[in-house]
């Protein structure tokens, strides 16, 4: 079922969302100071391309630097990438088949705004006691 949802996701929005994250990654890698932001954008592009079967878990050892990077991320890229998720979710929610995709898009907004301090892991690798922030 995950593969089918991922294929539908790819066709009806995932490719364009991943392309937006990749473009942000390229732009953010132009300056040396923003290369860590570009790396996060590429990591998110991979997640936006094929999200079903993955979970977002907190990274407890992230530290105070992740807060600073999240603020810079929101200012440079996060807000318009989150807006892309909202627009895509509205377009997907028009059809009944697209409603699960729209819900998945809305679940991706928090990590598109605050990517630092979180990890994206395969949902199968979670231990029974692990609590993901969200799983698609």
From TrEMBL:
<keyword id="KW-0472">Membrane</keyword>
<keyword id="KW-0812">Transmembrane</keyword>
<dbReference type="InterPro" id="IPR031308">
    <property type="entry name" value="UCP028777"/>
</dbReference>
<protein>
    <submittedName>
        <fullName>YccF domain-containing protein</fullName>
    </submittedName>
</protein>
<feature type="transmembrane region" description="Helical">
    <location>
        <begin position="15"/>
        <end position="42"/>
    </location>
</feature>
<feature type="domain" description="Inner membrane component">
    <location>
        <begin position="68"/>
        <end position="118"/>
    </location>
</feature>
<feature type="transmembrane region" description="Helical">
    <location>
        <begin position="62"/>
        <end position="83"/>
    </location>
</feature>
<feature type="transmembrane region" description="Helical">
    <location>
        <begin position="89"/>
        <end position="109"/>
    </location>
</feature>
<keyword id="KW-1133">Transmembrane helix</keyword>
<feature type="domain" description="Inner membrane component">
    <location>
        <begin position="4"/>
        <end position="54"/>
    </location>
</feature>
<dbReference type="InterPro" id="IPR005185">
    <property type="entry name" value="YccF"/>
</dbReference>
<dbReference type="InterPro" id="IPR052937">
    <property type="entry name" value="Inner_membrane_protein"/>
</dbReference>
<dbReference type="Pfam" id="PF03733">
    <property type="entry name" value="YccF"/>
</dbReference>
């Amino acid at each position: 079922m995950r593969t089918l949802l991922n294929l539908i996701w790819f066709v009806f929005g995932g490719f364009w969302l991943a392309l937006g994250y990749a473009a942000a990654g390229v732009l953010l890698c132009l300056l040396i100071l923003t290369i860590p932001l570009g790396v996060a954008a590429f990591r998110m592009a991979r997640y936006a391309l094929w999200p079903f079967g993955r979970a977002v878990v907190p990274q407890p050892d992230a530290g105070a630097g992740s807060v600073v990077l999240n603020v810079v991320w929101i200012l440079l890229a996060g807000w318009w990438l989150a807006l892309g998720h909202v627009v895509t979710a509205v377009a997907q929610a028009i059809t009944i088949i697209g409603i699960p995709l729209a819900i998945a898009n809305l679940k991706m907004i928090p990590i598109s705004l605050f990517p630092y301090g979180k990890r994206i892991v395969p949902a199968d690798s979670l231990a029974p006691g692990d609590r993901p922030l969200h799983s698609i």
